[in-house]
């Protein structure tokens, strides 16, 4: 009986202790129910010997699933609209058929213009540029309703015959979903940006059936962050998005191509020439597109045209061109498939090559919605197809079929426009399943990117960003960081050694301080080099350091900053040099060591400056 009473008392006591713990967490920690849940989850993870990255992967899975479902719905909605509208128009006789074919893109543009004017109430953003800006300047924050509005306008614009592609819009939708999830869960800016990258990777992977390419695009173009903590959740999201997309849309490659091989080594010369032509064509594409977009802005101001009318005008002009060349429609890849089989005519290839950037500019540059992946791939396939036919006529037995050159040209021109050769190489390998063509694609894509960068410093995204005063690189808003001196974030309290200091003394300090990088100077305080964790581990492992001095083990070839350097230079060093979290600051005149810049402090100062310049939306709303 006594034991029963003691058990009952213990049960009541345990219950009171539990409620007391909940009350203490909710009252004294001044949190809400999310805070209490997160603290409890953290305690559970500690007991299970897991870290916080584990539950974050489940959030990435959710983002990948949601984006994958939307990609499937996106694909089916565009197919439904285009089949119904253009299939019905094909049943009509001339001249009614041509009138309807011209009016369908105009009506789609009118819907998009009215939707943006009266529902969204802002001008549409500049596609991927706005996502990159959100990462670099707005802590990964995208307006929470952006994914829905982008889905509606893109489906209508592309499904009614607009010249843009569906790949970039679903990428933007996925990025907006990831950002929204990060905001709702009150994640830190770093994790919000990572979730944005998860959504972008899942969207591109799902629509292209290319998970590796989706991951690389998110890392190479969107985030500029190759760290493991960013890479893992993005991979998970891309894989989940691709698996879900394959379960509905099938697992076959996007493009069906014949087996291609490198017939002879002399072909590499031709692929190099094709890369040069693709780089110059990429510049032509970018300049043509933005010239048309700026033309629409000029006529809007000159003739006082309502902003909602511009997409309708662009759609009408687009329809007048596309009704004669159906391969220019954004929803169709038939002209690309024809070029890859070597069956496209010279007239078709020349027409699509010259008019695709024009059609894209008319439909998207006027205020419609769509991406530049598909237009760039079509223009590149036509360039490669034409080039392949020429070299086949010159050296018929020593070159591959024109379809191989169409495939390489498609990748090379896209790489030149996006300035993302790694992404394009991986995507083309995945969407074709042709390993043999990877070497020519690598050669031509890198050549195209270098030529395009030399000929014109802007990519498709950075042109509009720099017009707004935003320079980006490595996921950083360089336009802000380049105006901040490293002296503003430099520290003068740090541990340093003379070059004649004995190694035993260095190891003693290493054991008694949390520092892992030590600077070394000579008697005149001139910078000699750095003893890094790598050198320390060798000394500790070897044990034969007796009699050595700091100068014997110092690493002299390390990146340094000068008193005239700006913060953008420091941030770029930290992004590409993972082996150090400290950079020395040296006087340019005397070579003397002035101080150090720590990685965490540099990025913290940069983020604070971003809070002064950033905004809460994808990009500043432009008035109607």
TrEMBL record:
<dbReference type="InterPro" id="IPR046342">
    <property type="entry name" value="CBS_dom_sf"/>
</dbReference>
<keyword id="KW-0812">Transmembrane</keyword>
<keyword id="KW-0407">Ion channel</keyword>
<keyword id="KW-0472">Membrane</keyword>
<dbReference type="Pfam" id="PF00654">
    <property type="entry name" value="Voltage_CLC"/>
</dbReference>
<feature type="transmembrane region" description="Helical">
    <location>
        <begin position="231"/>
        <end position="249"/>
    </location>
</feature>
<dbReference type="GO" id="GO:0034707">
    <property type="term" value="C:chloride channel complex"/>
</dbReference>
<dbReference type="Pfam" id="PF00571">
    <property type="entry name" value="CBS"/>
</dbReference>
<feature type="transmembrane region" description="Helical">
    <location>
        <begin position="194"/>
        <end position="219"/>
    </location>
</feature>
<feature type="transmembrane region" description="Helical">
    <location>
        <begin position="269"/>
        <end position="286"/>
    </location>
</feature>
<dbReference type="InterPro" id="IPR000644">
    <property type="entry name" value="CBS_dom"/>
</dbReference>
<feature type="transmembrane region" description="Helical">
    <location>
        <begin position="394"/>
        <end position="417"/>
    </location>
</feature>
<feature type="transmembrane region" description="Helical">
    <location>
        <begin position="98"/>
        <end position="118"/>
    </location>
</feature>
<keyword id="KW-0129">CBS domain</keyword>
<dbReference type="InterPro" id="IPR050368">
    <property type="entry name" value="ClC-type_chloride_channel"/>
</dbReference>
<keyword id="KW-0868">Chloride</keyword>
<protein>
    <submittedName>
        <fullName>CBS domain-containing protein</fullName>
    </submittedName>
</protein>
<keyword id="KW-0869">Chloride channel</keyword>
<feature type="transmembrane region" description="Helical">
    <location>
        <begin position="350"/>
        <end position="373"/>
    </location>
</feature>
<dbReference type="InterPro" id="IPR014743">
    <property type="entry name" value="Cl-channel_core"/>
</dbReference>
<keyword id="KW-1133">Transmembrane helix</keyword>
<dbReference type="GO" id="GO:0005254">
    <property type="term" value="F:chloride channel activity"/>
</dbReference>
<keyword id="KW-0406">Ion transport</keyword>
<keyword id="KW-0813">Transport</keyword>
<feature type="domain" description="CBS">
    <location>
        <begin position="554"/>
        <end position="612"/>
    </location>
</feature>
<dbReference type="InterPro" id="IPR001807">
    <property type="entry name" value="ClC"/>
</dbReference>
<feature type="transmembrane region" description="Helical">
    <location>
        <begin position="56"/>
        <end position="86"/>
    </location>
</feature>
<feature type="transmembrane region" description="Helical">
    <location>
        <begin position="307"/>
        <end position="330"/>
    </location>
</feature>
